[in-house]
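QUALITY CONTROL LOG
STEP: pairwise intake check
CHECKER ROLE: data steward
CRITERIA: each record must contain a sequence immediately followed by its structure tokens, with no blank fields

ENTRY 1 OF 2
RESULT FIELD BELOW
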Amino acid sequence: MSAFTWPPESPSDSPSRARPQADEQIPAAVLAALFTGGEHNEPHIVLTRRRADLRRHAGEISFPGGRQDAEDVDLATTALREAEEEIGLARSDVTLIGSLPSVSTFATGYVIHPFVGTIPAGVAWRLSAREVDAVLELPLAALQAGRTRTRLERRGISFQTDAYVVDEHLIWGATARIIELLLARLSHAADGRPELA
């Protein structure tokens, strides 16, 4: 597997370990897992498609993750625990290489702390029957090429939003914003900062 290097983080990138006050947003964490593989041995990202019968975010594409539990020592632990519960990704298979700035959800009141890690290619996924319909292994180049702006309708409201389209997969909302942050961080290979080697 190729090594992914990560630029130094600014203080604003580092997720807070403090617990929020009751009137603040709900802390959550996700794992952006990267691996090199596939037919062209290129960088990929792991995403999930949520079950269509869920009460919230039904059928949407997201990173494995969820809200912070009281037992989680920190938000990185939350991201690793959730990835293990949702897609069977063993914590020992993940090498955390950094984090991204937090992203808020507008409708549900979460503040999501994205962590980035590398994993080996060829992981045998074990999906949570309660939450996950499919695991998607998407090439980063296809995501970059699929950036678009689209019109969506949710709860009777029509709006335009930034999105990524890869094959039949539409990625929008907080997940699209996290992908944008990730691609920006990884796109500096030409100036020698993070490099996909």
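ENTRY 2 OF 2
RESULT FIELD BELOW
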Amino acid sequence: MMVQNSDILNIENITKTFEGVRALENVDFRVKKGQIKALIGPNGAGKTTLLNVTSGLLKPDNGSIYMNGQKISGMTPDKIAFLGISRTFQLVRLFTINNATVLDNVLLGAHKQLKPDIIGTIFRRGSLNKKEREVKDKALEILSFVGLEGKEKFLPGALSFGNQRLLELARSLMTEPQMLLLDEPASGLNDAEVDGFIKLLLNIRDRGITILLVEHNMKVVMNIADDIVVLDFGKKLAEGTPSQICANQQVIEAYLGTYGSAQECV
């Protein structure tokens, strides 16, 4: 199957069942290159499951996923990552073994540039060859880009929760992704951090990186999403622009009204 040139990701009739419970049922949508697409819906709607299937952590029972026309459903997570999809998680996952620093965590995303001995490179504190210096310089640039300049020698545990989320995002950017899958990235952030995060995601998009975003914070969604898919009980309830979703009575009844999020619709 071939997808249109403007599509980077094609989710086609994805179904996933856990012990008889259907978490996803024939979910179908496309993500265009350079777009920020949001997945919203009640808890248990299947949003994280869909990200897990897309990133290769789970295999779908039925359906297919294509990236740039190539079928990726059924591939291992490392192969999908190598093709250009990077992922963050609801619970921040940072590397702390052997006093790994903030910079070390970002360098873990450099597997494309420093293969195969990435771990050895990170913990070899001596001289660096030219390629390793270039990669380190890039990691420092990414830390500055996300707002963590000057914190490269910190231990991850010394960072605030909001900065830990930024660190995980920096590591994902280090993989040179074509597309980011972000799972609740604004969770736990205060209002000021949310405002900064909105600007950062827009800057990431301006760098040509496509984003598929799962998020409950409707301020984030309505300010950055080009398009929104609404899931409910594993099915696609609606799809459209933020204004179309805000005006959809089914979405208001199933999600926006119940969760007090309708006020973010303008």
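INTAKE CHECK: passed for both entries
DESCRIPTIVE NOTE, ENTRY 2: The longest helix spans residues 130-146.
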